[in-house]
Every structure is written in C-alpha cells, then in structure tokens.
Amino acid sequence: MGRVQGYVTQDVVRAARSVFWEHGFEGAALPVLEVATGLNRSSIYHAFGSKRGLFDAAVASYLDEVVRPRLRPLTLTAVAPHALATYLLGLRAALAEPASFTAVNGCLLLNAAGAPIARDAAVRDAVAAYRAELFAAFAAGVRARFPDEGEGGVERLAQACTALVVSALALTRVDNDSALRGLDGALALVEHGTRAQG
C-alpha cells in the first residue's frame, strides 16, 4: 500500500508561487522553496518532476487564482459597460497600496518575461498567451463600453489599454508613480474612447 500524501498540493503550489513571484525562477533557491512549501527537495521532485515543474504549476495557479478571477466580469457572455473601468480601478487600488504584494512584486508572468527563463519557448508562449487573454478581455470591455465603436476603434482602444496595463505591472516594482499614471491613462481611454487618443 502506497504512502499517504501528507500535504495539500494546492497549498504547496501557492507557497511556491509566492516565492517565484517575489524572487523569480532563477532567484528562487531550492532551500527557500523547501522552507516555503514544507517539502524537502526529494518530495518536490517526486511531486513536480523538477523545480521547473513546480514553477509551471505556480504559473497555472497564478492564472487560475489571480488573473482570471479579476478578468471574469470581462469574459461573461454579457459584459457590463463599466466592467473594464472596474477592473482598471481595482488594479490601480492594488498598485496604490504600497505594502500590497502586487505593488511590490508586479506580475509573475511579466517578471518571467524579463528574466533568463524567458529564453524557454514554453515560457515565451505562456507570456504571449497571457497578453492575448488580457487583450481579448479588454476588447470585450471596450465593446460593452462603446457599443457603436467600429472594430478598428475597439482594437486600438483594447491594444492601448493592454499596453498600459502590461507597462504598469512591469513598472510598479521600480517606478510605482509611473505605473499608476499609466493606469490613469487607461481609465481616461475607457472614459472618453477614441477622443482620448486624438
């Protein structure tokens, strides 16, 4: 009879996620991961195959538990006209709180995009898919906010909002004021539409 697993996998992944989020893949030393997860190296390798396998599980957890719940109102069949503004205001509030984990550490995936692990094709694909997911959600929000806007205008506004959000999440660790100003710019676009771009 096999040994009973003495830990909850989701709890382990969440603990590792915080370490990767704060320190990056390369900076997340195995001894630190062992302390955070409560597992020794052999248990981590047995459960996840490798440190990289644990990182992949952390990325999936980040998308499912952090990113997608915030985006959910923008992915419904009927998106409310204020859904994109609500998302942006919520993100701005998180980044404006100096002690918040997101303000201090930015975005797990965008941090990875600027690290050596981004040379890995699977990580590049994950970052690109994340950006595409943001764009699709923001486009739905723009359509709901400006139902008479043509698809060209929707795409321009959604691309601009995506770029400003990505920039804010990348900048917050080193220049929080600029990150907040970027989100203010996105909110202006959502308020005024293409008039804010002209």
Summarize the structure.
By secondary structure, the protein is mainly alpha-helical. Helix content is 73%, strand content 0%. Residues 6-66 form the HTH tetR-type domain.
How many helices? The count is 10
Number of domains: 1
CATH class: Mainly Alpha
Could you list the spans in which at least 5 consecutive residues all have pLDDT below 50?
none
CATH architecture annotation name = Orthogonal Bundle
Helix content: over 70%
Q: CATH superfamily name?
A: Tetracycline Repressor, domain 2
Give me the strand/helix succession.
HHHHHHHHHH
Tell me the major beta sheet: none
What fraction of residues sit in β-strands?
under 5%
Number of E-state strands: 0
Radius of gyration: 19 Å
Large-scale geometry: elongated
The assigned structural class equals mainly alpha
CATH fold-level topology: Tetracycline Repressor, domain 2
Give the mean pLDDT. Answer: 94
Please report the distance between the alpha carbons of the first and last residues.
70 Å
Spell out the key features of this protein.
198 residues, mainly alpha, Tetracycline Repressor, domain 2, 10 helices, 73% helix, elongated, HTH_TetR, Tet_transcr_reg_TetR-rel_C_sf, Homeodomain-like_sf, DNA-binding
Structure description:
By secondary structure, the protein is mainly α. It has a single domain (2-192), classed as Orthogonal Bundle (Tetracycline Repressor, domain 2), CATH 1.10.357. The chain is built from 10 helices and no strands. The N and C termini lie far apart (70 Å).
